[in-house]
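Entry 12.
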Amino acid sequence: MKQYTHLLFDVDNTILNFDAAEEVALANILQKYGPTLDQERLHATYHKINRSMWQAFERGEMTREDLLNTRFFETFYIFDIVVDGEVLAEEYQAMLAEGHELVEGALEVLQALADMPKYIVTNGVGTTQHKRLQDADLAKYFNAIYVSEEVGYHKPQIEFFDHVFAHSPEIDRTHTLIIGDSLTSDIQGGIVAGIDTCWFNFHQEENTTSIQPTYTIDDIKHLLTFIPNLV
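Predicted 3D structure (tokens):
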């Protein structure tokens, strides 16, 4: 394996358990605005719409603002309930920012790699991601934190990575590895940027895409098996 000198880490379902934070925030929102609805069906509907919108966002077919401000409106509209999507988006982000449960093994990995330059590269809302990382006491492990909302571009866009490399010029692309759970965002982004990729298959799903990561792991601690090649 290649020797790496710099690591780029995604946040959600890579070092912080987004699923856990989302479950609490989403349950509160859906119960508040649709208390009489079938909650299981309501949750399934939201997840379907949300997944579709994120895929459209990654393809550049919709803006982040449209995604955040319309996904709840579209969800409840299916159940003949009209809500203010922007209001729900603000409530949801505030609740989401309170969730900072770590992915099992993530702290061990960051501590083991404490001396290696590491950078956060995440799609999301700046205030939310910064708060979660600070509350989890993880920000101190990273040389810089790059959030798509603040950058003005998102993974997998090359402009996002160009921004990262321009503002952290010490990073050598030929010896950099990106670690993330999303094939279409993290891994495709890494490929576009010309760096090696490590797919953390958090949900242990089959890769049915044409996107091929350099490495695949299903436990974040397996990243430590690369240590002889990282230090």
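Annotation: The chain has ten helices and six strands. The beta strands are 6-9, 118-122, 144-147, 176-180, 196-200, 215-217.
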